[in-house]
Amino acid sequence: MPPLQTLQTFSVVAETGSFTLAASELNLSQSAISRQIQQLEHYFGCSLFQRHTRKVVLTEQGEAIVPIVNGLLISLRNSFEATRKKGRSLTVRMPPTFARRWLLPRLTDLHDHHENLNITIDTAWFARPVFGTGGIDLLITYGNGHWPGMRVELLLPEKLTPMCSPELAGSLGEPARIASLANCVLLHSNPRQSDWALWLQAEGAYQITGARNQIFDTQDFAMTAAASGYGVTMGDLHLARQDLESGALVTPFPRIIESGYGYYAICPARADAKAGVSDLIDWLVGERPT
């Protein structure tokens, strides 16, 4: 293993993009920062940064090890903190939409039930999950529930229906007409647009297309854009609950479909891996809507 100090220095330089700023943050000289990065580059056998006059830029190899180094540092920090507090730390990876719209409103209740549990919320949903030391303890992800060799628990079954702002809903007619969607911007968090296709097919209106399509990389962005009046999104009733209760979003059409997909909690089926997160999974399953 490379020296821990070089890993911390690499993380700070990657974040700041500057040897000078990193030196200031770590209270070291710029030459010390440079030496530590050179030491780490010698260890990996490649350049980690492209040096420019006023900044440094990660190379492809540097980009690749950033999540590994940051994950290791977070794991160490949490472990030390848990030992100091006589608590327990877990790293849970999940999609940003699930974190913001489902877990965050329930964090207080989680901590009330598990006072000694410290959770690091990791939203790097695009990264390949690595379980164990330096990685994650539990993965919450979207899918169909089929992950052989893993313990899999359903948390949220997906229930979809179009959603938009109350003002835009008024333009769809009273009652809302499917044909009116052709005049709207259709918002997507699914690049294949399969959620809209499923719903329109259930309505027998698969030929309908919007005036324009806008794709986002998270359902949270699509729902936020819909609440602002920009267009109509295909939203999950569970994840949109707060916006629906507040009136920021409305559901102009009565049809709700179950896609067969949803959000699942996943961990290795090994006894030691399951034991470490079993109480958290039990709480998550207990919060599952009936």
Please describe the topology of this protein:
Blueprint (H helix, E strand, L loop, with lengths): L3 H13 L2 H8 L3 H15 L4 E3 L4 E3 L1 H26 L2 E6 L2 H8 L3 H7 L3 E6 L15 E6 L6 E14 L2 H5 L14 E4 L5 H9 L9 E4 L3 H9 L4 E5 L4 H6 L10 E12 L2 H16 L4
Parallel strand pairs: 3-4, 3-5, 7-8, 7-9
Antiparallel strand pairs: 1-2, 5-10, 6-9, 6-10
InterPro entries: LysR-type_TF_proteobact-type, LysR_HTH_N, LysR_subst-bd, WH-like_DNA-bd_sf, WH_DNA-bd_sf
Keywords: DNA-binding, Transcription, Transcription regulation
Protein name: LysR family transcriptional regulator
Number of helices: 11
Q: Count up the domains.
A: 3
Largest sheet: 8 strands, mixed
Shape: globular
Radius of gyration: 23 Å
Which runs of at least 5 residues are low in confidence (pLDDT < 50)?
A: none
CATH architectural label of the largest domain: 3-Layer(aba) Sandwich
N-to-C series of helices and strands: HHHEEHEHHEEEHEHEHEHEH
The CATH H-level homologous superfamily of the largest domain: Periplasmic binding protein-like II
CATH class of the largest domain: Alpha Beta
Q: Report the end-to-end length measured between terminal Cα atoms.
A: 48 Å
Widest β-sheet, arrangement of strands: 4-3-5-10-6-9-7-8
SS-based structural class? alpha/beta
Q: In percent, how much strand structure appears in the residues?
A: 15-25%
Provide the helix percentage.
40-55%
Give the tally of β-strands. Answer: 10
Mean pLDDT: 91
CATH topology of the largest domain: D-Maltodextrin-Binding Protein, domain 2
Domain HTH lysR-type: 2-59
InterPro entries: LysR-type_TF_proteobact-type, LysR_HTH_N, LysR_subst-bd, WH-like_DNA-bd_sf, WH_DNA-bd_sf
Pfam family, one: LysR_substrate
Keywords: DNA-binding, Transcription, Transcription regulation
